[in-house]
Every structure is written in C-alpha cells, then in structure tokens.
Backbone:
C-alpha cells in the first residue's frame, strides 16, 4: 500500500508540475527550428503531434524548417554540387529554383502533418532579404541575408490561432528570391517578437561530453541522460565553442546562435533531439529535460545591497507595507542585516530587493521581496527569489521558509507549499506574530 501511495504521490506531483508550466507558458511564443533530416523518421509524426498539443494549451508556435539535407538531395538529383564556404551555402543561378523547390517542399510537408493533427498551419513569403554579395573574394551569388520580417502580419496570424511556417527563402523589393540560413532566420525572429523559448530540433539534439575539451567555466556541468550536457549559461557555451573546433557544424551553429539569441533577451534556448519521443513535452513541462539548454544569466542585474541602496529599498517596500504585504522596516533594521539583502539594479537604479535570513537547523527565510511598480511584470520578483534560493543551496540549507499574508498564490508558482508555524525554526517560532497570522510557506532544498 505504501509503494502504491508513493507512486500516486509521484504521479500527482508530476501532474501539478505540468499544470504549473502550462500556466506559466500559456500565451507565450515558442520558435521551433525543425531539421529536415527528421522528416522521414518514424518519430516525426509524434513530434508534430506533441507540437500540436503545445498549441492546444495556448502556447503560440512559429516554425522555421531546416532545409539543408533536402536542398543537397534536390541539387544532386539534377547533377549540381552543393558548395559551402565557412558553413554558408553558395547558391548559383541554376541552383536557386531547385533550392526554392526543396525549401517550400519541406514547409509543405510540415504543414500537411499539422493539418492531420487539426492545426491550422500557414506558410508565406514574410521575409525580405538582400544578397550577401562578395565577401573576402567569394561571390555568394543568390545566397542572401535577412533585411526585414513582416512582423505585423505574422502577429495577426498568431493571434488568429495559426502556426506560421517560414521557409528559409527571402525576397528583395523587386521579387527576386534568395536562399537564407534557417538557423539565422530562427534567431533573427527573436529580435522581432517577445519569445518564451527558442528550440533547435534535430537528430542529435544536445551537446555530448564525450571528447569535449572543458575549461575553467565548464569543469563541472550538469548532465542529462546519455552523457548530454543538461544546461550551459552563455559564458559556458562561449567557452565550449572556443575550446572545441571539432564539434559538428550544426552544433557549433546552434551554440553560436543560442548565445546570440540569449543576448537579445531570450532566456532559454534548447538544443533538442526530435527522435526521442516526447522530448519537447518533457523539455517544456518538466524541470529536467533531455536536451541541452543554453540560458542567459538571469542574475546579472542582481548584487549584494549596500548602505547607499537602503533609501531606494525602503521606497520600493513602502507600497507593499501600506497594502499589508510586508512588515515595516527602518533604515536601522536593514543596516543591521545588510549582508542578507540583495537588490535588482539596472543602470544603477534599484528596481527590486529581497533578503535571505539564516536560522538554526539549516533553515533560511526569504523575506522583504519587493519590486518597483514599473518592473512588476518583468520577472524581477521571480529572479530575486530564484537567486536567493540558489544562495540558500550554496549555504547548505535544508529548508527555506517565508511568511506571507496575501501573496501565497504567487509563491505557489515558484514551488513553495503550505506549511505551519511548527515548520519554523525555534527562534523564529518564538517571534511569530499571532495577530498578523501570516501564512507559513516552505520548500525543501
């Protein structure tokens, strides 16, 4: 009976986790670059079905097909050689119509699978491009560079429930076509839209540690299944690129573009296998996926508080105190525990703050979470709490708790659960204000 209860509890926890991620990502835009090497794989229909399920729960999807394999095959059928320079295809006048045909064919293949799953996909010529021209003595002919993307039209289609498919073909103002990089297109879209996640989906997926040269930043890496690196921040990804010129072109291209995307504001880029069934659902709806995630260091605006920060911290806290969310603190109160406080600063302006107080029995309290009015929807509060949780882990915490009167729903989304006064360490329990009657929330570390 105990084993069955444990299994039921694990299932319930997994379901709760899925619902929390659905709530978080609903309405967000995911950009998916899907390699054409997957089209003939038996797992491809399953991948499209999973994408359809993402769409059905309110996640907006935009697809960029990878077309390199299809173009090579089409050129070969007509006796033309595929020529590359620094990883970029040289597209001749004779190759251009075959390149267009292959690219549009891949888009149509994806479109037909979406239709089979009851999803309205649509493809169009929404990319304006110009010729790469001659670089370092090499004429790239009809290979182009992205100039502009028809953002408003694509946004309208997304709003109406379509999944737009953008084949890597661009047109200039005179209607002449150019072959463009699908990876570059997927990354460039991140400049035009607010993107929740960018996926590069191929056969291999993530970066393997086997044969990988590691440096100072990458000596210790979190690993997923099959020896894959689970996660890299952009500094680690840059180090991997610099030390490992032997990496396959596709992985180097993905890493370079993942770094670029993160620097435009994307928080998460995923290198994922399209062969492993359920991989995209696992990556989206669980805390541990099975590919390699490249992420922007979301803590770069966070630092320890100084005495000079206290007036701004008190200013930000004041509205929370007036609403009864926080207890009142004085300058002397904060000064006395200044080392516990962190601030979220942009260009030296303070937009958020929080504290981590240590107690006996390896218990820590998260307190004084406050965010400036103009930054409440920018993820600052979540970044502060996550940063403090990481700090608690480094300090060997066993339990993190907090007291709240009106913000329990928000803390639920961050993984905290209902607790009781009995969960407080003895010294905090003695100081508990029964009149205020704050809710106790806890999370195990």
Residues:
């Amino acid at each position: 009976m105990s084993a069955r209860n444990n299994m039921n509890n694990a299932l319930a926890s997994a379901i709760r986790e899925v619902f929390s991620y659905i709530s978080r990502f609903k309405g967000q835009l995911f950009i998916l670059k899907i390699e054409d090497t997957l089209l003939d794989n038996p797992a491809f229909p399953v991948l499209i079905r999973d994408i359809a399920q993402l769409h059905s729960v309110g996640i907006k999807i935009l697809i960029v097909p990878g077309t390199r394999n299809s173009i090579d095959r089409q050129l070969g059928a007509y006796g033309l050689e595929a020529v590359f320079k620094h990883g970029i295809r040289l597209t001749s006048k004779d190759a251009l119509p075959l390149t267009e045909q292959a690219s549009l064919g891949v888009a149509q293949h994806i479109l037909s699978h979406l239709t089979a799953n009851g999803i309205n996909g649509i493809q169009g010529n929404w990319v304006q491009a110009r010729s790469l021209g001659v670089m370092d003595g090499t004429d790239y002919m009809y290979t182009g560079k992205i100039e502009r993307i028809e953002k408003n039209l694509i946004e309208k289609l997304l709003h109406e429930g379509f999944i737009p498919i953008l084949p890597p073909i661009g047109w200039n103002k005179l209607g002449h076509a150019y072959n463009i990089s699908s990876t570059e297109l997927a990354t460039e879209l991140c400049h035009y839209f607010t993107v929740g996640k960018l996926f590069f989906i191929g056969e291999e997926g993530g970066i393997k540690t086997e044969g990988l040269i590691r440096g100072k930043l990458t000596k210790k890496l979190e690993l997923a299944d099959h020896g894959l690196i689970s996660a890299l921040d952009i500094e680690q990804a840059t180090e991997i690129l610099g030390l490992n010129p032997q990496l396959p072109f596709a992985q180097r291209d993905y890493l370079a573009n993942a770094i670029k995307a993160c620097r435009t504001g994307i928080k998460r880029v995923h290198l994922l296998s399209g062969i492993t069934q359920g991989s995209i659902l696992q990556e989206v709806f669980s805390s541990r996926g099975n590919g390699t995630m490249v992420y922007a260091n979301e803590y770069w605006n966070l630092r320890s508080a100084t005495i000079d920060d206290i007036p701004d911290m008190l200013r930000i806290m004041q509205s929370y105190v007036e609403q009864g969310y926080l207890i009142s603190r004085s300058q002397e109160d904060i000064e006395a525990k200044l080392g516990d406080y962190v601030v979220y600063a942009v260009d030296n302006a303070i937009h958020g703050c929080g504290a981590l107080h240590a107690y006996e029995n390896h218990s820590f309290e998260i307190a004084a979470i406050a965010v400036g009015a103009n930054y409440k929807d920018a993820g600052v509060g979540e970044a502060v709490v996550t940063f403090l949780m990481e700090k608690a882990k480094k300090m060997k915490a066993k339990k993190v708790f907090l007291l709240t009167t009106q913000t329990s729903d928000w803390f639920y989304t961050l993984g905290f659960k209902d607790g009781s006064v009995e969960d407080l360490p003895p010294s905090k329990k003695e100081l508990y204000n029964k009149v205020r009657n704050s809710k106790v929330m806890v999370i195990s570390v």
